[in-house]
Design goal:
With 298 residues, this protein is of the alpha+beta class. It is built from 14 helices and 6 strands. Helix content is 55%, strand content 16%. The protein is elongated.
Length: 298
């Protein structure tokens, strides 16, 4: 017996759910908040007269964008009081996302941090236009602006992003090879092995949210990063293990302490060296990853 939904509203929502989730996640940097936005989108969608909707995808994207904008403005106020460095909530992604270079880059930790510098409206316009190629007229309806204003916003947002856009990553195959070397170095704790895999100007950003130990500011330079990591390990009682995975479209490690999830460490690789490390330890940002990794381990 088929389990496919027969209700037209449900069918349309399910068909576009992945798109809507990605739009919300790229605007908010939080998978949990993106799920909440999808719930709000659904509640509004079921009250719509579908006979009056010319383009269901565009209509759903418009609802999702408006709900995301409302939530983003509230989240901005919360982030002003955030303890230490803020990183997006890590999201496990499948290999096919990593193979889609443009999508993988758009959800990467590096790009998500660049998008944080945009205003809420600029971020919405950039995501819809540059990532999903939504037309200016559709975006205008979603953000409550004229098409001419949206073109100007898109140009301004693109200019800001291009000025800060991270350098192009190495290939996924090379990045995975670097990740393997980095994993071995972390598990052995050999300082020289760590230095060999880190670029001299590597930057470590760690997010503990005031709950877990993390650097309050970025740690810059290979030697400082190694000292920070080994210093933390020396104060840790227990066994640290690392498992490779794909997070936000790029290679990453699931770090466990005595079998319990301690954090997610994403990497950025350029010229076969790690140039950026993103270590999310805030437990509130790891709930989704923890449940998904436990399902994988079963």
């Amino acid at each position: 017996m088929s389990n496919r939904p027969t209700d037209p509203a449900t069918e349309a929502f399910v068909a576009h759910r992945n798109l809507l989730f990605t739009v919300a996640y790229e605007m908010l940097g939080s998978a949990a908040d993106a799920e909440d936005v999808l719930q709000e989108t659904w509640l509004r969608w079921v009250g719509v007269d579908l006979e009056q909707v010319r383009d269901q995808r565009a209509y759903l994207v418009r609802i999702t964008t408006r709900q995301s904008l409302n939530r983003l403005r509230t989240m901005r106020r919360r982030r002003e009081a955030y303890v230490g460095q803020w990183l997006p909530e890590p999201m496990l992604t499948t290999p096919d996302v990593a193979d889609d270079v443009e999508l993988a880059e758009s959800v990467s930790m590096a790009m998500m941090l660049v998008l944080e510098r945009l205003s809420p409206t600029e971020r919405a316009v950039f995501v819809l236009r540059e990532v999903f190629e939504v037309g200016y007229d559709e975006i205008a309806e979603a953000v409550g602006k004229t098409p001419a204003a949206v073109r100007q916003i898109a140009h301004r947002a693109r200019r800001h992003v291009d000025a800060r856009r991270p350098a192009k990553m190495t290939s996924q195959r090379q990045a995975r090879a670097v990740l393997e070397s980095f994993q071995r170095a972390l598990e052995t704790g050999n300082p020289q092995d760590l230095l060999d895999v880190l670029a001299p100007e590597v930057v470590l950003v760690s997010d503990g949210g005031g709950i877990k130990r993390a650097a309050l500011r970025p740690v810059v330079g290979a030697e400082k990063v190694v000292r920070f990591y080994l210093g933390g390990v020396s104060r840790t009682k227990g066994t640290i293990t690392c498992d490779p995975t794909v997070v936000n479209g790029n290679p990453a490690l699931v770090v466990r302490l005595d079998g319990e999830l301690d954090g997610i460490m994403g990497i950025r690789v350029e010229d076969e060296r790690i140039t950026s490390l993103y270590y999310v330890r805030n437990p509130e940002k790891l709930t989704r990853v923890e449940s998904e990794t436990r399902l994988t381990l079963r």
